[in-house]
Write a structure and sequence with these properties.
- This is Microcompartment protein EutL.
- InterPro entries: BMC_CP (IPR044870), BMC_dom (IPR000249), CcmK-like_sf (IPR037233), EutL (IPR030983), EutL_PduB (IPR009193).
- One of its GO terms (molecular function) is structural molecule activity.
- Keywords: Bacterial microcompartment.
- The protein folds into 2 domains: 109 residues, Alpha-Beta Plaits, CATH 3.30.70.1710; 98 residues, Alpha-Beta Plaits (2-Layer Sandwich).
- It is an alpha+beta fold and 217 residues long.
- Strand 9 and strand 10 form a beta hairpin.
- The radius of gyration is 17 Å and the shape is globular.
- Helix 2 crosses helix 3 and helix 5 packs across helix 6.
- The protein is 36% helix and 28% strand.
- Strands 1-6-7-8-10-9 form a 6-stranded antiparallel β-sheet, with helices on both faces. The protein has a 4-stranded antiparallel β-sheet with strand order 2-3-5-4, covered by helices on one side.
Length: 217
C-alpha cells in the first residue's frame, strides 16, 4: 500500500513583540523572554515537531503547546485547528526566525500519511534525527538524540507500538495512551537514528496491516 502524505495547514499566526507582564506570568516566562510567537495548525503532532525544530534554530523556548479536544473537525472556530503553539524569545527577531522554521517544517518536512483515498484514516511515523529542547523534555532524554514520533488511531497505535518496540533497539520514552485529546494514540521511542527509522517502518507496516485487514485476529 502506497501512503500519500497529508500536510498540515497553519491557520493563524501572530507575534507579540513585547508581551504584557501579567500574560508573561501566566506563561511562566523568564525576565529575558519578552516576545511571543503564536500559531494554530490543523494537525497537532506536526505542530509539536515544528516547535521542537524551532528551538534548535532560534533562541526560543516553547511556552505553550496544547491539542484541542476532538481534533480539527470539531474546532471552536475556523482558525482554531486542533493545536496552538507559542514560542517565547528575547526579542521579535528571534521569534520571527522561529516562526519561519515552523513554516518550513509544516510546509514540507513533517506530515501524516493517508491509509485511504479519502484521507480519513492516517498515521504519523516521523523520525527526529536530533531533538531540540521541547521534545527532549517531553521524552525525558538528553537533547540531541533521535526520536521516533509515532501516532495513529487507538488500536492501530497500540498494535503498531508493540511492533515498533520489537523491531529494533529502542525504548518507549513517552506513551500517549488512547484516546488523546484528538482521539489518537502513540508514543515517542528513543534510540539511535537507524533504530528509530526501523521502528518507524515497523510501526507503519503494522498500522497498514490493521487498515488492510481490520477484523483479522
Amino acid at each position: 500500500m502506497k501512503l500519500e502524505p497529508i500536510y498540515a495547514e497553519i491557520l493563524s499566526v501572530r507575534i507579540i513583540p513585547n508581551v504584557d507582564p501579567m500574560l508573561a506570568k501566566q506563561f511562566n516566562l523568564s525576565p529575558s523572554q519578552r516576545s511571543l510567537g503564536l500559531f494554530t495548525i490543523t494537525m497537532d503532532d506536526v505542530g509539536v515537531t515544528a516547535l521542537d525544530e524551532a528551538t534548535k534554530k532560534a533562541d526560543v523556548e516553547v511556552a505553550y503547546a496544547h491539542s484541542f479536544y476532538a481534533g480539527a473537525d470539531h474546532s471552536s472556530g475556523p482558525l482554531s485547528g486542533e493545536f496552538m503553539g507559542v514560542v517565547a524569545g528575547p526579542d521579535p527577531d528571534e521569534v520571527k526566525s522561529a516562526m519561519e522554521v515552523i513554516h518550513q517544517v509544516v510546509d514540507g518536512q513533517a506530515y501524516f500519511e493517508a491509509l485511504d483515498d479519502e484521507q480519513s484514516h492516517s498515521l504519523y511515523a516521523h523520525v527526529v534525527s536530533r531533538t531540540g529542547s521541547f521534545l527532549s523534555k517531553e521524552a525525558g532524554v538528553e537533547q540531541g538524540g533521535a526520536i521516533a514520533y509515532l501516532i495513529a488511531p487507538p488500536l492501530e497505535a497500540t498494535y503498531g507500538l508493540d511492533a515498533a518496540l520489537k523491531a529494533s533497539d529502542v525504548e518507549l520514552a513517552c506513551f500517549y495512551g488512547p484516546p488523546t485529546e484528538t482521539n489518537f494514540g502513540g508514543g515517542l521511542l528513543t534510540g539511535s537514528q537507524s533504530s528509530c527509522m526501523a521502528a518507524a517502518d515497523a510501526f507503519r507496516q503494522a498500522v497498514i496491516d490493521v487498515a488492510s485487514h481490520p477484523v483479522r485476529s
